[in-house]
Each structure stands twice: as structure tokens, then as C-alpha cells.
Amino acid sequence: MSAFLEVKNLNVSFPTEDGLVQASNDISFSVDRGETLAVVGESGSGKSVTSLAVMGLHNRKSTNISGSAFLNLESGPIDVISAPEEQVRRLRGKSMSMIFQDPMSALHPYYSIGDQLSEAWRLYNDGDKKAGFKRATEMLELVGIPDASKRVKEFPHQFSGGMRQRVMIAMALINNPALLIADEPTTALDVTVQSQILQLLKDMQKEFNMAVILITHDLGVVAEVADRVNVMYAGKIVEQGVADGIYYHADHPYTIGLLNSIPRVDQLDGKRLIAIPGQPPSLINLPQGCSFRSRCTFADQVPGNLCATVAPTLDEKDSAHFSRCHLTEKQLVAARGGK
Amino acid sequence: MLKYLVKRISATIVVLTLISMSVFLIFDVLPMDPARLTCGKSCSPAIVEGNRHRLGLDVPVQVQYGRWVKGLFVGRTYGEGQAEIVCSAPAFGYSFNRHECVTDLLKAAFPITLSLALGSFVLWLLVGVSLGIVAARFKNRWPDRLSNVFVLVGTSLPTFISGILILLFVALKFGFINAIDLGKWHSPFTDPIGWLNTFIFPWITLALAYAATYTRFTRSNVIETSSEDYIRTARAKGLSEKAILRKHTLRAALAPIVTIAGLDFAGLLGGAIITEGIFNLPGLGRLSIRAVLNDYDLPVIVATTMLAATFVVVMNLVVDILYAYIDPRVRVA
Amino acid sequence: MTQPILKITGLKKHFPVSTGGVFSKGKGVVKAVDGVDLEIFPGQTIGLVGESGCGKTTVGRTVLKLYEPTAGTIEFNGEDITKLTPKQMKPRRSQMQMIFQDPFASLNPRQTVGTLIGNTFDIQGITPEGGKTEEIQRLMKRVGLNPEHINRYPHEFSGGQRQRIGVARAIALKPKLIVADEPVSALDVSIQAQVVNLLEDLQEEFNLSYLFVAHDLSVVQHISDRVVVMYLGKVMEDADKKDLFLNPRHPYTRALLSAVPVPDPKIGRARERIILQGDLPSPVNPPAGCVFNTRCWKAQDKCRTEVPALVQISTGHKLACHFPEPASA
């Protein structure tokens, strides 16, 4: 029984004036219905690029994409990477949907909410404007917008940020997609609103039995919603596993570094944050060997100059727990000072 | 909405009043003497004074203004008895040089200017906007580069050059127009072919200049709008590129053009001086330039200025209302 | 008993909002800051937290007189600066500086790093001993930048580095107070820790006071000594850091804390989340009585009519609530 989305060896690169930007490299993962996969990374990690490739939102003329991303639909599997553009387009908004970071600018300012929702529904369903608005109102009620029948006629600027994100969710789910990709959906929102939206996403996932990919940089959000996690750095997956495994048994120095460097509301001991030194690398001139080498405080545990010369592969270090690192278990323990 | 309209209309009236007052004041301050210019060399001082009195120039400027405003509503009488001239409302004054009520002069000139403005407007919008959309769609490829050439030519070539070039090397050379019939007025209702004949080349001349600007403007607007987040949303929804362009991109990109187009059109309604001159069209432009340069015909000057100002100010209001219709964010409650 | 370096009392900042056409006068006011009391002592960090529209950024700017206060007093270094004119403020500005949120927008893209930092000396007419260039390079080194890059332009640096330039600019004149307005929100997570550590080190070295304005409670918790929670222009709770995070007495603070995600799945799954209903009310039309009453789950009639005063409920812990949450532990 295969998962709903299966991505294998996905590579995305953009030729630019300064050189080839290797945005996403050798990405393989899967998500099934009812599961939430979190993709964690900072800017330049490639986390968004991968999902845009799955949605077919890259400009095929100016982007090099290779590998495969199979959507295992009831009617049969479709590889969105190699399938014709028109076929992929007809999956968007129907079998797979995406919501983006900034709800303030994601809606057309001139059309009413009802118009925009109705448009999404009528693309794949036979119905007139009235039916479309009816469906739009239903969806608004589902996502918790009070006074839905009145608000459906209003315009985006009349909604707050949190409300707009709810509208975006309503729009993404209006055709019951099996896969929802949420790219930093709460980053631009206040923390109390974030809480509401994350809860809404959880409820909607249950309601529609969707596969959810949540892209974020916030390890707190990941801990709250994710079943499994992909940690990305410089375009590659550097660690992959179930949420508990990543948080409690992190194997990759980047993950360990991140977890050590973020302050937590529940840790009031005032201990100094252990920052990861240096900067993320440029995706045009990726260093030879491991991309994280220049910032890795554990690299000296690895004998020879392995980290600088050979790029590590994503290996299974533990059951269903993968890490892209040369460090052995023993070396890792030694590096962490015996922990 | 009603409150807003009332506010705007009152503001419009205030602006027009201020403009008319300024015009009167300017001409009062200028050293030229309109009465002297009413009859040329053969004038005796007595006739000049008589004309001064009949033109109403022997009273203070505010009284002149007052009478002018009154004339707009009830018409005006110049002189007494045998030399009496009556101009019916709205009376903009009397032109001694032409021996006509200014209102009649305006009535004759306006249809020509209107025809010129309308035709150019339609032409430049169609060409400019379409070319802009094409250029944006094929950004940096040959259609874009070609349209860029068009933009450069259009914006750098002034109408007095392009008009003459078109007249000499296209219209006359290929016999499209007869030099004698140049600028002859044919009503579009009774003689549409003649009407087209008269205006086609002036339209092309004017449209050339404006279309270029609109191409550039449309192109940059479409490109900018295409990178907006809500376009990405539309794509993620599954809309086809054509549908996205038609329903989402264009609506947002072309909205600002409404404002600019309206105002450009209003400006043209005041008269396209150069184009009318080249193609011998007796429109408002010709009327006003002659009044200023040749005759120093004060009533005509005041009238054409006021007319031009009225068009612009009114169009301002129209455009604002239209824009509020398009962009809900601008609406007042 | 040391004197506070900054003391604000009853600070108000209202912005007029006009909602009409050509001839209408301003209708309505945005009460961005509506009565805030605050004290910062030398070497102390006060975290000012709240969500959008709470007024924390406005407080930060008004304290530095970037906005003129509508009411209330600002005392800096024992001196009442509330009514000082911009000209009078100028010499005092060397003592109070600001670090901005957006490392991309807060640096003039046409000026080199050297000019950007050097401007602070020029404006105050100060020539640092040892030479301006040497001092600039020393500052760059101190904040972790390569002094050889003194002639580079902002776009040649990363976000984190640009923020360091902002920090260098702020400490150039050895100020006593720095208002840091969301200094790390726009940075990548792995860079945030670097800048936070830098700010902490500088505080220790120069005995700086920080007014740390932020919405990220995790960062605020880490760096602050005391925390002030704001909502719709008013202070809800003002307490010692540990006290506030372990023993929040205001319903809003409780809801806020319960909403902050913790990078720990077991805790994340087990935590009881208080989900606030409704939307933030408009600051043009704040609710009567307690501004939080429309979203508070325990709001009573008194809350809708009477504005709760900010009172001391225990040592060093102030609260503005008619029905505080019970003290825990």
C-alpha cells in the first residue's frame, strides 16, 4: 500500500546570471493521508522549492526539475514532474492544494471572498454563481468565520489577517483535496491566532483525512503538529524521522545545533544559547563535501578530511530515522560530551 | 455615497470658480489692451473707447467677472440700441474679431475636437494596451523588444514632427487625402466616410504619441501584477494561465489606466493644438491658439480655458467614481 | 537606591484618523498607547510583549521621542524630556538609541557600512579619540563583522550581518538605553541566537539597559529581567520574568503563554491550550471597560464597564484585572 504522495530523488535548480542555483537536491520522502509531515528549514534550505515542484508551480521553461513525485490517486498514480502541464494543472485545487505565508496579499483585492471561493469550486464542479456562493458560505462556516452568509459578500480588505488565512484554508479545501501543503501558514500571524489556525488545520485534516505537508522554520510549531519531520539545509534533507526521534534523539549536528539555539518559554534557567556559528551557504557555490561543514562544531570528530571532501548520503541511523552525516553513533556521543 | 458625491461636486464648483477668477485676474494684470486690438490699424480712439465700453472693459475686473458669470446663466447683451448684440445663454462673451458670440464659435469647434479626441482615444487604448499586454507576456523576447522600439519612437517623436511626416509622406503622397479637402468637416452621421477620411491621419498622429506611453505603462503594470501573491493563489487553485491573465491579472493591472486615460482624454477635449494645426482642423485647439497669438481675443481665451478646465475637473470626478467601482478598497463605506 | 534610567508615567500616544473626503476633519483616533507606566533600571532588560496593535512598537518610538507623546511623562536619566523640542533632544540622543526590526529596510542602501556607522559621530559632532575610522572598525569587530568590509554596501551582507551593523550603529556613542524593536524577528533561527548572545554580551560589557520590544515570547523570556504585557494600548501585567512565566495572573497572559509553541512534542501534545475566540478589536474603537473583555472567558459585567487599574498584587508584580487568575505554586 503506497502512500498518497511519494517523492523520489527530486532535484530543482534554476539557471541564473550568477550560475546554477541548486535549490533542492536529492529529495525523497512520502506522506500519506491522515499524516502530517513537517519540513523544517531556514531561508535557502529549499523547503518551499520542493513543495512548489510537487504542485507544479514552477515555470517549466526556466527551471530544471528532475526526479519524480507520484500522487497515488484513486484513478491511478500520476507523476507530477513528468506529466503534461495541463494534467498537473487539473490536479491543483482538486487533488492537492497549497496555502501560503502571507494572507494579507494572497487574495485578489478587487473580488469578493465569495467570488474567489466560488471560482475555486466552479472550476471543478458544475454550478452557477448562486451555487458557488452557497458552497462558499458553507466552507466559511466550516473554518469558523462568524456571520458567514453576510461576510461571503465582503472584500479581502475587510478581513483581519487571521480571518484571511481561514479564508485561504477554506479555498484550499473547497474541493476536498487529498493533499494540503501549508507553506509557513502562521508565520505572519500573532501567536494567539497561530494557535487557532493550527487547531483548525488539525481539525480539517481529520475531517477530510488529508495528507498535510507543513513547511515552517518554527520548531515549536513542528512539535505541536507533526507526525514526521524532514529537516532541510542548503537544499538537502539532512535529517528525517518521526517527530519524537528528531527532538529527543537528534542525530545531525544541524538539528542538534538548532534545538540548542532556540530559547523556550518553559526553560527559565537563563542558560546562554548555543548559537550555530557562521551563515547558510550560497546555493550557487555549494562547498565540496558536506554543505554544513563550515558551521559544524562536531566535524573534528570525523577522522581524515572526510567531511570536507565527501558529501555524506542520507543513511538510516536508526529505525526509520535518517541522517546525512559521516558521524558514527560513537563519534556523535563523544562530540556531545558523552550524552 | 450621496454625501461623497455632494462633497465632490461642491469641490468641483469651487475649483471651477477659482479657475475662472484666476483667468480674469491674469488678463487684467497683463499689459495688453484688448479694446485696442478689436479693430486693427484703422481704429480711431473713439471707436476703441466705444468698443471698450461695449466689451464691458471699462469697469473694474470684479464687475467684469460678475457680468461674465451672470451671462453664463441668462445670456448677455453688448452695447445699446442699433449696435446691440445679444448672445444667448450660456454666454461666454462676444468676439469682436470674429463678429460672433463666443458660444457659437465653441459650438462649431467642439464637434471637431470631440471627434479627434474620441477616435484617438479609442485607437491609442486599443493599440497601447494590447501591445503592452503582449510585451509583458513575451517579456524579453522579440515581441517585447519590438514593442520597445515602438515605445521609444512614440515617446520621443513630438507630434509636430510625426504629424507633418505622416501628412506629407503618407496621407498626401499616397493620395489618401486631397490637400484642398484637408480638415473639412463631415458629420459622422450624414457622411461617415468623409468623416473618417478627415480624421484618420490626425488620429494616427495623436494615437502614436499616447499609445507609446500606454504600452510602457501597461507592460510594467502587467509584469508587476503577475508577481503578486494573489496571482500565485489563482495558479495554485488550478486556473489556466489564460483565465488568470483575463480575470485576475488584467483587472488589477489595468485599473490605474482608467484614471490616466480619463484625464488624458479630458485634456484632449480642450483641444489638440498642434495636430489641429497640421491637419487644418478648426477645433478648439485652433480656436484658442489663434485667440492668443493672433487676435488677443479675450472672451475666446477665457472661454476655451474654462471649457478645458471644466472637462478636466469633471473627468477627475468621473474617474474617481469609476475607480471606486473597480477597487473596493477605495469605496467610502 | 539607584534611579531608573527610564521612567514613563501615564504615557499616551493617539493618532488621529480621518475618515472623510476633502473637507472633513479627522474623525476618530487610534489609541495606540493609552496609559502606560514603565521603569527601566541601569543594566536591566525590560521585555515589552503583545500582539499586533497592542502598542508596543509605539511605546518604543515614543520613549525615544520619535513620536511626540499625546499625554504622560517620560523621564530619562532623571530628567523630564517629555516637552523637549527636537533641537533640545539632539544632545541627549547619544544616550538613547534604537535597533530596528528590518535589517533590509533600516540601512540606507546607498551608504557604506563606514558611512552608516560614522554618521552617528558626525551628527553629534563627536570625533572619537584614536580616529573615526579606527573606532568604526573597532565597533565592527566588536559586533562580529570583518573590519575590512568597512567600505561595503548593505546589500553585500546577509540579514544577520546587517542587523549587526544596526547594533554597531546603536552602541557607537555608548548609550545608556537601547530600544530594540523586534531585533531578531526577521532573522533566520540559527542567526537569532547569535544576535541575542551579542546583545547580552554588550549589555554586560557596557551596563546597557534594553527596552526589548517583541512578540516572540520565547526570546523575550530568555533575554528579559522583567516583562510587561500589553494589549490594545494598555498594560495588562508587569512582573519579574520568572514570576510572569511561572505564575501569570492575567487571563490574557495565560492565554498568550498557552499559545506559544514549545519545541518539545511530548509537552506540545499534553499542553492545555487556551484558545481565544474572536478577533482583536479595532484600536479606533476599543471596548469599554477592560479592553480585553470581548475575548476574555471570565468576563463579567464589571469588566465591561469599569477599567481595571494597574495595581500591585505582590512584590514586583502589577496587574490590571478585576478577576485575576489564582496564584499557582
General description of the model:
The complex is a heterotrimer of chains A (339), B (333) and C (329). With 339 residues, chain A is α/β, with parallel strands linked by helices. Chain A is built from twelve helices and twelve strands. Chain A has helices spanning 47-55, 85-89, 113-122, 129-142, 148-151, 161-173, 191-208, 219-225, 243-248, 253-261, 306-309, 329-335, and strands spanning 5-16, 19-31, 36-40, 64-73, 76-79, 96-99, 179-183, 211-216, 228-233, 236-242, 314-318, 321-324. In chain A, the strands form two sheets. Chain A has an eight-stranded mixed sheet, with helices on both faces. A four-stranded antiparallel sheet of chain A has the order 2-1-4-5. In chain A, a hairpin with a 2-residue loop joins strand 1 (5-16) and strand 2 (19-31). The longest helix of chain A is centred in the middle third of the chain and has 18 residues, at 191-208. The radius of gyration of chain A is 21 Å and the shape is globular. The two termini of chain A are 38 Å apart. Chain B is mainly α and 333 residues long. Chain B folds into two domains: 35-91, no CATH class; 103-330, MetI-like (MetI-like fold, Orthogonal Bundle). A two-stranded antiparallel sheet of chain B has the order 1-2. In chain B, strands 3-4 form a two-stranded antiparallel ribbon. The longest helix of chain B has 36 residues, at 102-137. The termini of chain B are close together. The model of chain B has no long low-confidence stretch (mean pLDDT 85). Chain C is of the alpha/beta class. Chain C has an eight-stranded mixed sheet with strand order 6-7-8-3-9-10-12-11, with helices on both faces. In chain C, strands 2-1-4-5 form a four-stranded antiparallel sheet. In chain C, strand 11 and strand 12 (317-319) form a beta hairpin. Chain C is globular, with a radius of gyration of 21 Å. Mean pLDDT of chain C is 89; it is low at 20-24. The chains are: A alpha/beta (339), B mainly alpha (333), C alpha/beta (329).
